[in-house]
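Handout, tutorial session.
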Amino acid sequence: MKFFNGMATITRLQWLVWIAVLFIIFFSSLPEGGFSHACYYTAINVSFYAIVIYGNISFLFPRLYQKGHKVLYVICAIILLTVTGLSRGYFLINLYNTYYPTMKEPMTLGNLMNFIVAGILIYMLSFIFRIAIAYFELKQQSEKILAQKSQAELNLLKSQVQPHFLFNTLNNIYYEAYREAPRTAALIERLSDIMRYFVDESPKDEVSLQTEIQFIENYIALEKIRIRHETEISFIKDYNAEARIPPMLLMTFVENIFKHGIDKSSSDNKVDISLIHQDEYLLFQTRNRKHDKQASDTPHGFGIQNLRKRLALLYGAEFELNIDCSGQYFTAFLKVPLS
């Protein structure tokens, strides 16, 4: 039992088939010549059956026929059947003559040819054997896929428990903070909305433009509390709320503003953001004043490079992305079709 428990299901099934064949041949030949004769007879036949079957399905068919070498496959198959048939006939005739010396079977070409013809039947059965193995492999793969799907669904349910617990906790903190510090409560609410966006919206292929804008506004509000001086941020919006875009498409520009476009020690920070829906296209532009630190940074960082690759996958050539860092301002412009 331990021997079979360690094997894959398909391998175990093949072992069971061969053991069944072995017992059938053994017990059918046992009354004719006794125990030792049955053992030798069974070992010779099963060995040559296995050579023909696995020689075809494991070597000749996949390495020759399936790779287009059909003529070579036919030639090799004939050689396989001839060699195994002659060898099997030679051993079995010698075995028969050993146990029945008074009724010896002559070692003639005609008798050996009979074993070659019998090998053709085994050769044809090898295809049925191969189909059966392929069927059980496919069935096993299907069961694995279903098991993985069930596990993934279970993991998804588990993963949703923690965010929902966190959202509920944030809501409780929000209500407690609202009594003492309404501004802090408002920031907690924005943080909760951002986290909910990451969990519920970002995995989707598309989100509404209204949802994406709300996410950007929440992000801006939370970033502003990290800046010492008041920052003038203008966000012009003119859009159709029903329009849809891929999630997180506009965030690269907004993130770059707060990473590179704002000097936290300066009171002279001004940011202009515009989002316009025009002729089935979305026009999004950000502009911020350049500072000494940003002036030395390359405008084509990893964020912009990754965004350009993503846009190419999403829209092909139907988008426009321009970066302008000349003069005193850093400007980013994006134009994409809306669905």
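The second record follows below. Compare its token runs with those of the first.
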Amino acid sequence: MSDTATHLSPDAVKPVRFRGGGFKPVPLGLLSPLVFALVIGLWEIGSQTGIIGQLVLPAPTEAFEAFRQLVTSGLLWKHLGASLQRLAIGWTSGTLLGITVGMMIALFSLARASLQPLVSAIFPIPKIALLPLFIIWFGIDEGSKNATILFGTFFPTVIATYSGVDNVDRTLIRMGQSFGLSWWSIVRKIILPGALPAILSGFRISASIAIILLVAAEMIGAEFGVGAYVLLAGSLMATDQLIAGVALLSVMGLIVAWLIGKAERYFLRWRS
């Protein structure tokens, strides 16, 4: 080794930048609110200058005024309460049933051979097209609405569950078997944690589908609900109220996504 290399001063040694971040997303703070504010600001400017027609798309201030009237009249809580109740019942039931059937398909050959083709055949059917059939079966009241949401969230949850289990590293399962772990211990300690990222991703998809089906179900025979409010506003050509209802649905979707994100950070903290 040369004298130059052996007699380097500490100041001449430069630290190597850490490059093992693992593609972990970097939080950017206020960027998301700024993007929303920019879009709404440009929308308001376009409406005020006449670039955007008021009949085609009302200004955000008009939609906010319609939302304020909805709050002061007390109708917001009636519409929102009815929608949240249907969403909670339908999505929770469909998710629990979907996880159960998905685990059965993933873990038992008989269930995979009999149920997986059935799931693959029914999943592409638009669930909104089955709403009249659900009304015949369960009536026009809450039963048909809850069944529509349940049916729509069930299939993506099933597919996400058994796909997540199928993608668990088989080496870990064989290692557990070699150490003499019981079948239930392998499922609880290896398979479920390994499949949880896919299952939670399925939750995001099924929650979005549930909100879409909620609106469709409430447009048929519902007195209260965000979907019923949007339908009434569209029938009256009250576009400011229509935009307020759509914005309310968007906020519901953001809150659900935020809650699922919190669940992911809690249950998947072992990945960091």
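Points raised in discussion: The two ends are 41 Å apart (CA to CA).
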